[in-house]
Amino acid sequence: MTSIPESTVSSVDAPPIPESLLGPLLDAAADSFGSFSSELPAVLRPLIGFDRRGLSHGPARVQLQRAIEIDPAFRDYVCEVFISREATIQALADWDIESGLEVITDAAQRSDLALLASALYAARPSGWEFGLGLIVAQADQVRSDDERADDAKARQTEIDALIEARRRAEDSRAEAENKAKNLEDQLKEERRSRRERELVAERTVSLANKKDQAALAAIAAAEASVSKAESLTAREADRARAAESALRDLRRESGESVAPSPPLSSDDLHVLTQAANTARQLATRLEGVVTTTQVVARTVATNPADGSVKATKKRIPPTCPPGLVADSPDALDAMLRTRGIYLVVDGYNISMTAWPEARISDQRERLLVALDRLHQRLRCDVVVVFDGSDAAATVPAKRPGVRVIFSTGGEKADPVVVREVDQLPANTSVIVASSDRWVAEHSEDLGALAVSASSLVEVLRR
Length: 462
Description:
The protein is mainly alpha-helical and about 450 residues long. The chain has helices at about 5-10, 25-30, 60-70, 70-85, 85-95, 100-110, 115-125, 130-255, 265-300, 330-335, 345-355, 360-380, 415-425, 435-445, 455-460; strands at about 340-345, 380-385, 400-405, 430-435, 450. α14 (about 435-445) links the parallel β4 and β5. The radius of gyration is 55 Å and the shape is rod-shaped.
């Protein structure tokens, strides 16, 4: 075992060394703690019974270092054990005060500063105080470099996180702007289409009114012609009868017996009769024309685009529970529990409110599943109408209590919704779910109760 004179180890106080630089020496103290034959220092007595693992960390580590610093006997014993180790012998063999800085730099590069510091502290060769001072300074430098590197890494991580957050925010903004533009384009297209339908409706109604007025005028003219023909026929018949009676009287008075001549020929009477019959037929046809034009006017008032006939039958709307607003989720949930009630749904108007991010086919399927659950929960009959142009020949699975309708021939779903309301039995209550104002107004004209898409979506999510 390599050792140094006891007087040297014990008489010279070492400068304060951080625990991290005395790790190898403290490991040797933990290893040799149980074999120390002399009386243990008071500071180590609480450690009696600790195993090797318990002596390797925490307060035990601090107490071992304290015992080495204040108890010469324990320090000499631990230093002798540590100095005898091969790694310590090699570290001391490499030490030279003349090239101390170079030796310490090499040890730092090998991550052996703690081994060299422990060896110098234990053996205390020539220039050991100088060496320990350099090692402490080198360790502080390494620690500062590590802290700066950690700080730089943390800052770079924060910068990278901010850059990524900014990129995501820009992507989200671009996506939101794109969605807003698409919605704006759809709104413009809807407004343009509605204006066109309104113009077509106005022109159709105007044309129907003109035809109605013309038909009424023709009927009046025909009635005048019929009246005039009948009056002429009656006058001619009266004149003929009067002339024939006068002629018979004259001949009786004169004693002549001459066959009376007819006042009007059969051809004349036939012509007058045909004129009267023709006038009556014309009046009948003109009355039919008036009826047709009135039906057309009612047709356009319901749907200017496709000419579906507006119904006139009325129905009793559902009764809203007291204290609730009709267009609210709670009121809608309560009314849908009414026996025999029908729920007519403007399909895509609801699905785009509930799942605006999903594809149109996924929206349709999610809505059908939700309506099926609603029927099973509340037992209400459901009719849902989708635009046929978006169906893409997809035939949805049949669901009891949920009837699915697709508009056809380029027709929008809006007029189909209104027609479905009109065709339901007049003795049933109907609720129409749509945020489309045109659908709501025309459904209410038929006696249905219109609720917003958001109210139905809230009920579907329960």
